[in-house]
Design a protein that fits this description.
This is Haloacid dehalogenase-like hydrolase. The chain folds into 2 domains: 161 residues, Rossmann fold; 77 residues, Putative phosphatase, domain 2 (DNA polymerase, domain 1, Orthogonal Bundle). The chain is built from 9 helices and 6 strands, in the order βαααααβαβαβαββα.
Length: 248
């Protein structure tokens, strides 16, 4: 690739799988209950970020995550846990495993010229740095990422426009936002990227197809079922763009 292209990868739910969290919850609850608790916890976690955006307030993502867990446990019958157990569940965020397509994808990104991979996350820099160094699946590829771009500096969460403007500033592409590709399994992240003028690839691992209708015009640039296809998709995009210019 002859131009500078930034691949901004979301980490929670896109690179890192929540299976490790389920396993930690299973030490205290049956598997079905653990999965339900995780699903509800994640819903509260994201809802809290959006509510904080609307309120014009900000808390570090680590606090948001812990508060959402407390909320989930409080509304789940028989889910009282001692503080030490909650601490262990929170610590599991630092040792989360990756989806099977992550390793091969990062290996290819490491040797693809013209591509700059960065982490782009709601998480704090401390949370993500710990994951990059402690996750047995992710640590071997930590050097692939050239930066960690978090929302901490702007004190807003995805999908606020300021977050994506901050990403563009951090990677030096404020006037070339169309060369930033946000890679995410979260529809709200896709909405935010497209709203800000960035490209966005939605990773549809559940094979459901794009059904989000929050703002129908904010569709992903591409929908893929695996991270392993992102390089080919982006390369083809620029080849097609070049061909269109040549034939004009």
């Amino acid at each position: 690739m002859t131009k500078k292209v930034v691949i901004a990868m979301d980490i929670y739910g896109t690179v890192l799988t929540m299976e490790t969290i389920v396993q930690e919850l299973e030490k205290h609850f049956p598997k079905a209950n653990a999965e339900t608790i995780l699903k509800t916890w994640r819903q509260h976690q994201l809802a809290y970020t959006w509510r904080l955006n609307s309120l014009g307030r900000f808390l570090p993502f680590s606090e948001v995550t812990r508060n959402a867990l407390s909320h989930t446990l409080a509304e789940t019958p028989g889910a009282d846990l001692a503080e030490q157990h909650i601490n262990r569940i929170m610590a599991a965020f630092e040792n989360m495993g990756t989806f099977p397509d992550v390793g091969p994808t990062l290996s290819r990104l490491a040797v693809t010229p013209g591509v700059i991979p960065v982490v782009f996350t709601n998480g704090t820099k401390t949370m993500v740095s710990h994951s990059l160094s402690k996750s047995k699946d992710l640590a071997p590829y930590s050097a692939v990422f050239q930066d960690i771009v978090t929302v901490e500096d702007v004190k807003q969460f995805k999908p606020a426009p300021a977050v994506y403007d901050h990403l563009a500033k951090m990677v030096g592409l404020v006037s070339q936002k169309e060369d930033i590709w946000v890679i995410s399994a979260n529809p709200f992240d896709i909405n935010g990227a497209r709203n800000a003028g960035l490209k966005a690839i939605w990773i549809d691992r559940s094979l459901t197809g794009w059904t989000d209708r929050a703002e129908p015009s904010l569709e992903p640039t591409a929908v893929l079922h695996s991270l392993e296809d992102i390089i080919q998709t982006i390369t083809h995009h620029y080849k097609d763009e070049l061909n269109r210019h040549v034939t004009r």
